[in-house]
Amino acid sequence: MHTGLTRRENLTGWAFTAPALVLLGLFMIYPILWSLYMSFMTGKGMNFKFGGFANIYRLTQDPIFLHALGNTLTFLAIQVPIMIILALVFAVALNNPRLRGRAVLRTAIFLPCVTSLVVYSVLFKSMFADDGVVNDALLFLHIISEPIPWMNDPFWAKVLIILAITWRWTGYNMVFYLAALQNIDPSIYEQARIDGVPARARFFKITIPMLRHVILFTTVLSTIGTLQLFDEVNTITASQGQGGRPADATLTLSLYIYNLTFRFMPSFGYAATISWVIVILVGLLSWAQFRLAREK
Amino acid sequence: MSVTLKSLRKAYGAAEVIKGVDLEITPGEFCVFVGPSGCGKSTLLRMIAGLEEITGGDLVIGGKRMNEVDAAHRGIAMVFQSYALYPHMTVRENMGFALKFAGDNPGTIAKKVDAAAATLGLTKLMDRKPKDLSGGQRQRVAIGRAIVRNPKVFLFDEPLSNLDAELRVHMRIEIARLHQELKTTIIYVTHDQVEAMTLADKIVVLRDGRVEQVGAPLTLYDDPDNIFVAGFIGSPKMNFLKARVQNGQLALVDLPGQTLPLTQSLPEGSEVTVGLRPDIFKRGGTAHLDLTIEIVEQLGAETYAYARAGADIDGQPLTIAVTEGRDLRPGQALKVTFDPARALLFGKDGQRLR
Ligand SMILES: Nc1ncnc2c1ncn2[C@@H]1O[C@H](COP(=O)(O)OP(=O)(O)O)[C@@H](O)[C@H]1O
Ligand SMILES: [Mg+2]
Predict the structure, then answer these.
(1) B190 lines ligand 1 (CB under 6 A)
(2) What percent of chain B has pLDDT above 90?
(3) Helix B106-120 with B135-148: angle, nearest 10 deg
């Protein structure tokens, strides 16, 4: 190579980056390659043997896997759009200079994503218990006539998880939109006022297109996050150390991987195969989203 | 359309920014607001546009009071300093966007947009996005977008200040040509007095939220009402010399021992400021000053000499602009002559003594 560096300088450079490279290799690249290798292994516990595509065949025959996949995709398809739209609406509202108490509201909406997971799970569990404050409030307001079984009904348990992750991550996405909005030249909106552009068109024809790149970015991030959904379904809809309740209604791919590895008789090879399913889903969906957002 | 401002005021909380402006702009006039940065030019323009609320007074456009009328319905179009083009739309979409909301059908929009594009030489750029245009082209698109709406009044807020010097001169001429073609009323804000002088039918000099003087460019140049206007209009700047009336003559405080003839009757002992434009020294006359040249700037067609009463005397040097000055050298003694009637006298309050 003709980099103009002497051999000595080159060696010095490698010496400086070596510790980081070793750590990266040891804790990132090696496990990734190892999990790829493992995904072709079958067997329980530490005694496994090469099984070729046996694990992939097992996927197609495994009702629990298909159920977890269905749950995960349901969460994804419903929660991500709701959260993105909500975050956009909050961002546009909080960007209005005439709104009072903007700083406080921004902080309040952002705070959930930095709240401790344990505190948040305990609070949600208690708030959404059969006799928790949410049911009490809804009963008091005569919106419902009997308590909603948030934890014990397959449908409501999914709703609860969607509520919880939306609560936790909307503010995080909103901050990206707020930053992008603040970078927009205010004269563009003044021009729109003079042009007589109505508020709806201002939002859909000016704001949304100008935020397109950030929206894409947050959508990809949220998709990845939701495909890896684990925390909430292993804490809020869990009891006696078993998550995904009731009756696996909130079982996700990540939780299933966890169960396969740490709760059932360990099946490392099969668990590795499922984790590669998540990787492939992330890749496919991100690619599709990039294509959709590309300029015509 | 005429535009009339009647004791127009604007306050942000307790801070008054526009302190009562009266102004009459006749239909088709090119009116330029000029003044130092922060004097309230943009605020005044934005009040006319409907982007700032009016605290007090009346705004009348075409005989109709507009104080509370929405910006979209005032019959105005505005060109912003940053151009404010919609970045995700092509030139064509940018120019036609407002017309969609005015209820024009696509055929009419296309016709209007194409006509404006032809006027401004944008026809080849219609499918580009703003980021693929040069500064001058963006400027043209912003102007085109304004023209398409066929406004009764054009508003420009420092439209040329983001362009380089050469392009600025070029666009200045284009805007002047456009005004001759369209004959629409234009209100144009700038801090650059050269732009004001070259473009305006009427210049409004603002300072600190008040109008200092209104008039045609040459009226302000030849006959300023006060020291501020005299100093602001004209480049290079007017020379100001302190003087006292003594024995029917003007004794120059800054040039000890030198005097100028007094051309108007003033009480003995009055303290005045004498204003001398650098270019009055080009012609001969009965008044004269004895100076020493400090610095010479050769511009080709003209020479600027900066000169003092003597090499060892402090104070602001006088600027002398002459056409026959190629042989001037620093350190050289210079005797300049001029017509004393061209000296302007200002009182202690800065107002012109006539
Ligand atoms: N939103 C605002 N709040 C308070 N003061 C303002 C606001 N906008 C402008 N000003 C003040 O008004 C004065 C005039 O501003 P502006 O019209 O922008 O001046 P310019 O002549 O440079 O265009 C300035 O002193 C500025 O600080
Ligand atoms: Mg300004």
Answers:
(1) no
(2) 68
(3) 140
Q: What is the domain count for chain B?
A: 2
Domain check: are B255 and B174 in the same one?
no
**Model confidence at B5: pLDDT above 70:** yes
Please indicate, yes or no, whether residues B189 and B252 belong to a single structural domain of this protein. Answer: no
Residue B154: closest C-alpha in chain A: A194
Instruction: Residue B180: give the domain boundaries.
Output: 3-231
| Bridge partner residues of A257 (DSSP) | none
Whole-structure pTM value: 0.82
Q: What pLDDT, on a 0 to 100 scale, did the predictor assign at position A57?
A: 84
Residues 6 or more apart whose Cβ sits within 8 Å of residue B218: none
- Written as one letter, the residue type at A152 is N
Collect all residues with Cβ–Cβ distance below 8 Å to B145 and sequence separation of at least 6.
Answer: B77, B85, B94, B95, B97, B98
Q: Which residues of A touch B77 (CB under 8 A)?
A: 194
Number of H helices, E strands in chain B: 8, 20
Give the whole-angstrom CA distance, residue A154 versus residue A275: 25
Under the banding of pLDDT at 50, 70 and 90, the label for residue B51 is: very high
CATH number at residue A272: 1.10.3720.10
Measured CA angle at A182 (ends A185, B47), to 5 deg: 45
| Amino acid present at A161 | I
